[in-house]
Amino acid sequence: MYHIRKKLEINCGINDRASCGASRGINCRDRQGKACMNKKLREYTRAQEDMVRENDHIDSKLYKEFGVKVGLRDENGNGVLTGLTNISKITSSHIENGMKIPEEGKLWYRGYPIQQLINSLGENEYGFEKIAYLLLLGKLPDLEEEKIFSNQIFAARTLPTNFTRDVIMKAPSEDIMNSMTRSILTLAAYDKRAKDTSIPNVLRQSIQLIAEFPMLAVYAYNAYNHYEKHQSMYIHQPSAALSTAANLLKLLRPDQKFTATEAKVLDTALILHMEHGGGNNSTFTTRVVTSSGSDTYSAIAAAMSSLKGPKHGGANIKVMEMMADIRSHVQDPEDKSEVSWYLNKILNKDAFDGKGLIYGIGHAIYSISDPREMVFKKYVEDLAAEKGKGRDLALYNAVEELAPGLIAAKRYMYKGVSPNIDFYSGFVYDMLGIPTELYTAMFAIARIVGWSAHRVEELICNNKIIRPAYMSVMDEIPVDAPYLPGSWDPGVTVYTPSSLKPTPVEPAAQPVEPAAPEQQG
User: Fold this and answer.
1) Up-side HSE of residue 487: CA atoms within 13 Å toward CB?
2) Which of 208, 165, 172, 218 is nearest to 187 (CA)?
3) What CA–CA distance (Å, rounded) separates 134 from 357?
4) Where in the chain is the domain with CATH 1.10.580.10?
5) What fold does the segment set 61-464 form as a domain?
6) pTM to 2 decimals?
7) pLDDT, tens only, 332-341
């Protein structure tokens, strides 16, 4: 790896970026020593893996024996009730004669069915700001209220002086979610009332973050694209005359141009991703951190760290990878027998990533249908027609039709499966020219609205830290055991961290008075 220092190209001999300290401010003279230390640490931790796995293993039978709801869900996939909310509602079944009967999925925002909200928007109307008002403030705005709220967002769509240069462009990363999280936490340093958890202040911080998220995401990508991929860098300024979706496209594209169809489809995608109940991992994380009394920036940063996990926010990337793999092995996307043959190979772990999963099909809650996918598909079809992607759409249609039946035939299912919104969202982002590195960030740009609404509701309704129980199943060491913690030679020496040397002690020495117990977390 080469480093530029004093206008000289120096080969320090370190080829592993994880070992190199160049991006972390370590001088070249220190790098080889740092690399040596990192190598030794990696060797040490690899050597400890088996011991750690053995010591941390808990027999899966114990979870059932003690009635533990792993993942806070029962064996039928139903979430453990941990709270109440007025913000949204999700249903996918009803009870009939004591039996749970699957039904078409439904999603409400503040009492309004999501289909109704989307359909209420005019053909050329963008609804991000209106629906954000609904979720954050609790009611649909009239025209004047929507105008004032939108103006507040437009006014807040700016970053502190030199923030882009001093924060976003430093240490750019392919992981845009990490870059955004760093920026969110740094923004707290520019906020004199960062720790104020009063409702007006939290609303102010929420509106600012909703406005700033598109810039944090796109600028982070542009910095990565320039410094790591060696492409031209451009930093466009947002326009007060444009909606959030339109501004996103303007900020991202070199020519700042986009079509009305593109902006409308992206606006719809953002609305559909804004909120999905209080039990999803990132929203629950927001509530947990909020319950501790922490500030808005920390709560949202924690939610970002949750969302970036591949089990939560990265599903559309796996769908795109899977569809590319299917496309490379299926000659005719309209030949259902050929598509079915390859999907069976995926389910049998003989194709794609060997996991046996058809990504984008199935959901933790929905069974017969995902209402977001049902609404979104029309917009996907409109965009595919504009982009000339009919052949690709045909493949998506074939997988959507065939996959549920193939999955049901191979596996025991306590509920049905159907395409979820992530089945199509990656396809839409690809047609819009949005880089893969930004896919999860697009999710965050929308979901910041839901996180903010749940944070406010948690602050208003609850004044108790969320602290579930964990039962200990460890083996207790007998009090009269001859071993001293950290001893080199039981009963003869003990390890003292201050000197890093074994210190002799008398075998009959009296035990040290225990320290005062730590405060419970």
Assistant:
1) 14
2) 208
3) 36
4) 61-464
5) Citrate Synthase; domain 1 (1.10.580)
6) 0.86
7) 999 999 999 9
